[in-house]
Amino acid sequence: MTETVKDFLMENVENPIKKENVKFKRFKSPFKIKSLLADDVTKLRNQATRQVLNSKTHQYEAQTDQNKFTDLIVEASVTSPDLHNADLMKSYGVVDGDAAKLLQRMLTIGEYNELSERVIKISGIGQEDAEEVKKTAKN
Description:
Shape: flat
Structural class: alpha+beta
Strand order of the largest sheet: 1-2-5
Distance between the termini: 50 Å
Number of helices: 6
Helix content: 40-55%
Largest sheet: 3 strands, antiparallel
Number of strands: 5
Strand content: 15-25%
Radius of gyration: 18 Å
């Protein structure tokens, strides 16, 4: 079979976005999540990374805040409930509009771990990233 560029055109390939429901007993409706694309994860990693001056080498080095990275990944994957809904935020006492903080207030640590693991699985995040996300979610 001969490959052509047509084999790679968006309209000729399967949609990479997968969707899944994650049900927790405490909530009447499931959380709905979607997979993330590579460029989504790169943008989120950049948001969680800052330049830090190494005092020994006097060079700036990129340092990723793994807690923030995990929170951003999980937040970006949740499509329902609407984590930016003012009534939902008010209900959980989140007044600064921080959707990641809202999720942490809504979920027990076990539920948050399960949700983050499902996000990792559905997105096919690389093993190294997945281990960091899992480790961070458990802390």
